[in-house]
Amino acid sequence: MVHNSQNDSASGQSPNTLSQTSSSNEPIAAIATAMGKGGVGIVRISGPSLEPFIETLLGKKLVPRYTHYMPFPGPDGSVLDYGIAIYFKAPASYTGEDVLELQGHGGPAVLRLLLTHCLSIGKPFGLRLANAGEFTMRAFMNGKIDLAQAEAIADLIEANSTAAAKAAVASLSGRFSQEISALIESIVELRILVEATLDFPEEEIEFIEKYQVRSKLENIRNELSRILGIAKQSRYLRDGLKVVLAGEPNVGKSSLMNALFDQDIAIVTDIAGTTRDSIRETLNLDGVPVTVTDTAGLRDTVDPIEKIGIERSWSEIKTADVILHVMDSRNPTRVLDPDMHRDVLKGKIVLDVYNKIDLSDSVFSTEACPPDIKQVFVSAKTRQGLSTLRQAILDASGRTLGESSPWLGRERHIQAMLMAQEHLDLAQEHAAYDNTVLDLLAEELRLAHDALGEITGRMSSDDLLGRIFSTFCIGK
To answer: Which of 315, 364, 365, 473 matches a 20 to 30 Å C-alpha distance to 174?
Structure first.
């Protein structure tokens, strides 16, 4: 897999222009398979010119990209294991360096012995234990993948649903990177036009009209908005959707929790205020991991323990993505008021859930509901309306049943795109004036370009790279 890099014509900066503090010439080694017992275990070594080390370790030369079944010798000449050795010669390897993989049995003891022996034999060659994510970081530094693809590798390993795994594979294939790169290229083309005109100030006003700068900027902003929307939706595949059940005591929140999971998770009684602490469980809705939290009922109370539970309820509400505002359909009372609790509910999706409809003769109207809040009518006891509620939660994630995400986005990507969006909005404002100052327009385009460049790593700091790759496992 090769990262197709692009030259930054406007800034004169090439991709992956980074200091080499984390990409030394020392060979590295680690166990590449998960901890625990398994049928197969792999020790991976990567570095420049591994042939002398391989011959010292295994007592023979290996033909690149061929499997060699052989004994893996120990320090005293005994056999540690029998397995397959594969040598990938640079640059045709995962890291872009020479790579040796020793594939043996997956017992933790034998893998540790094999790794220890490799490090001992490799000491004169400078071999050391790999840091977290260092193999993938070297692949990035050597241009095998970009930063978004590197993150997709970690996402694929950590995927907890089929939908998340498919989206991570799409990102790993470069689909997300291609969309970002195409957007960057459009900005670069516009930057070239703007900066080339800076030397001719008398042509600035004519330039805006002649080259249709406003319409080009609008197209770029629309495309960024589209990509940003997908990234926000796909983030839930990776991070999950946090749903909180909130409302007065005894409206059936715990019963609804049990009904959603079809098991007795929360204690249910006729006594108001039974739930004193937050209870959470995770379910999978069409590939979206959803964490549902049942909270203590919201009301004025003098009970000190219940007060603590209510404080925790508000804490859960503040961090939720979706709030299920549960009410008793026989006497619905709104304890989460959009005006009174504007700060708490800002940016959150609120669903008014009218429970106990099996006990109510009332007919409800959606006209009384605020326009940005959806109503759902259910019975936790009879399970009526539960499928509608599940679909409403799924809709809140931006997905429809059976829809797949074209790639997987991360919060880091979203923040970078939001920053780019802010600068493009300012650029559009500058371009709107008849007396446009092109150097201000050029600066906003440059800042938008820089923000998007951080997604693929074309413009990244060592600190950013360190934070990203430190989350990887050691053998990756």
So the answer is: 473
Prediction pTM value = 0.73
Number of other CB atoms surrounding residue 431 within 10 Å = 22
pLDDT of 128-153, one tens digit each? 999 999 999 999 999 999 999 999 99
Quote the tokens at residue 262: 């079809």
Task: Answer yes or no: are the C-beta atoms of 49 and 98 closer than 8 Å.
Answer: yes
Please give the Cα distance from 176 to 409 (Å, whole number).
Answer: 8
Confidence band (pLDDT; 50, 70, 90) for 322?
very high
- What are 437-473's pLDDT values in tens digits? 788 888 999 999 999 999 998 765 666 677 678 777 7
Cβ neighbourhood burial of 276 (10 Å; 0-12, 13-18, 19+): middle
At residue 169's C-alpha, the angle toward residues 164 and 174, to 5°, is: 130
Q: How does strand 98-106 pair with strand 79-88? A: antiparallel
Residue 159 phi, psi dihedral angles, 5° rounding: -60, 130
Number of helices (H), then strands (E), in the chain: 15, 12
Sign of the CA dihedral with 225 first, then 230, 233, and 238 last: negative
Residue 41 phi/psi, 5° resolution?
Answer: -130, 145
Averaged pLDDT, 411-423: 94
User: Do 237 and 408 meet the contact criterion of CB atoms below 8 Å apart?
Assistant: yes
Domains of the chain: 28-130 (3.30.1360.120), 169-236+408-460 (1.20.120.430), 239-396 (3.40.50.300)
Tokens of 297: 């009922």
